[in-house]
Prior knowledge:
By secondary structure, chain A is of the alpha+beta class. In chain A, 48% of the residues lie in helices and 17% in strands. In chain A, a hairpin with a 5-residue loop joins strand 8 and strand 9. Chain B has 10 helices and 12 strands. In chain B, helix 1 packs parallel to helix 2 and helix 7 packs parallel to helix 8.
Amino acid sequence: MIENATLIKQGAEARIHTAPFLTRTAIVKERFSKAYRHPILDKKLTTRRVNQEARCLFKCRKSGVDTPALYFVDTENSTIYMEFVRGTIVKDLLVTNSVYIQNKVKQDELAKKIGIALAKVHEIDIIHGDLTTSNLMLRESNQSLVVIDFGLSYISSLPEDKAVDLYVLERAFLSTHPNSEEMFTEILDAYRKNYNASQGVLSKLAEVRLRGRKRSMNMQYGTQGKVIHRASVFKLNIERASVSSSRLYTNNMKVIHGPPEYNQILGKSELEGNEKKIEGECDMSSMGKKFEKEKRDKRRKKRKEQENVEYVDRGYWSEPVGVEKRER
Amino acid sequence: MIAIGFEGSANKLGIGIIEHNTESGVVNILANIRHTHVTPPGTGFLPRDTAVHHREHIVPVVKEALKTSNVQIKDIDVICYTKGPGMGAPLVSVAVVARTLALLWNKPIVGVNHCIGHIEMGREITKADNPVVLYVSGGNTQVIAYSEHRYRIFGETLDIAVGNCLDRFARILNLSNDPSPGYNIEQHAKKGKKFIELPYTVKGMDVSFSGILSNIETIKNEQSCSPEDLCFSLQETVFAMLVEITERAMAHIGSKEVLIVGGVGCNLRLQEMMAQMVEQRDGKVFATDERFCIDNGIMIAHAGLLAYRTGFITPLERSTCTQRYVMLICF
Lengths: 328, 331
């Protein structure tokens, strides 16, 4: 039991208290056991997460990312004591603070800070795992950006994991703060400039966006152009939507990306007027296939060069000849 | 107002007839007939065979629905059908019937988003007001909430759907597909005792199931563990993942209600785990039984009629199907 604790928030998996710790006020994060989970699974997950959180928090702090300072870890009770950060949560800033809602300069400034912080976190191979605007804060005293809640963090140097990390933020950003595409672009921009290996991560991010069942999501969110007639915007959309569109629409149907309210599938006859305004042919289905194929070929070529192994073409994927499953 | 709904996006063929009293707002379910394409153990359902099944059974099922409901054709106001998402061939074979009947009976037609159908039906049956929706079925695994005039996806699976994971698992163990693989896994799991550790992958509000399947394949061959234990461990693991992301979404949005919809949603163990989670958070959980959880025609009729009442009609030339639905164009 924590002495003199006041509960301030019950999150998804932990209770957050404030309590005096030696001479200071501390945030006490207590992971409680879940009744719905099997005891073995519960124990395993809780211990693993407490350890990982403490480790990542410490590692970040050591390399100069502003995070709450780690005071004490009580593994027995799955509790972490850390610094009480005075400041505002970014989500609240963007939702309630009129300065941040209206002032683009302020937004960009904030976005830049976020980008730099993320770059630092990824630099030391830490994956935050739950990047949302609720887990970012602005410190009251010096307005520096604090990354909090490392509850789902882990250590990995794979661009893939970092890209997914960014993707989670993108999704959280766009689903909680509509019309914040520009801000997210700004974040990525700052990230690119401040992280040497960002190129690999960002190209992976483009892949992640197109992957699997998230495709249709990209049509819903993402930086869908606000201007319907601009060819460049349209091209961007083709790139993003291509994989899904090749399956989505039959050949005589076309899609127009515009503001959500105009975003509809139209029959051919109704498209004719709009078609003139868009440069070039916009048969989504063939564009999609072409794009898919180009990407596939590129990927295959790259892999071949890397491993120098012969591949069998199986149509949609290729497999190395006679290579056993590699051990991790 | 009376609507008839045609559903056939996967292996269930469902026809439902629903009545909305526009004045009192009371919803009356007149018929809910379903015919499932069941394949032998160890196999799944293929689009082509499923389409053949739907084509074979749709006329008797429609007749049965009309007979059960005691509704005259002239009383029906609108015909609703599943526009997507789903398997192409089954979708089209059912849509053709809906379209033909619309022409034959001279009724307006409304294309319905399958997912919205599930959610609206769940809300109607349980009277949940503004819940976080966990939509779990053979093709979808999503955590959805309504915000800014749209249903928005907050978390989902990064690869296969949970129902797909369960189905394929049942295929590995050669469990029966009758009435559904998920039901048989649930029954086996009740006898399971030993908990076997399986990969547990939660990334933010997203989950991933594909690793579990390949892991189970190796475990099954290497260790000596009974199918019951495997079923038990699988359910405990995947449902814990689902409950966790739902809880995260609830904490993120600040909601106290959860609604479970979709075929996997009728699993009692999932409902129980969700109830335990919600109890800790002092909230409420809503779930329905297999009549409304598993794909059915009623939900299509219901969602379609709601859209129709607001003036939405799908013109005949646009009454197409899509395998992947862009959520924006629902209604």
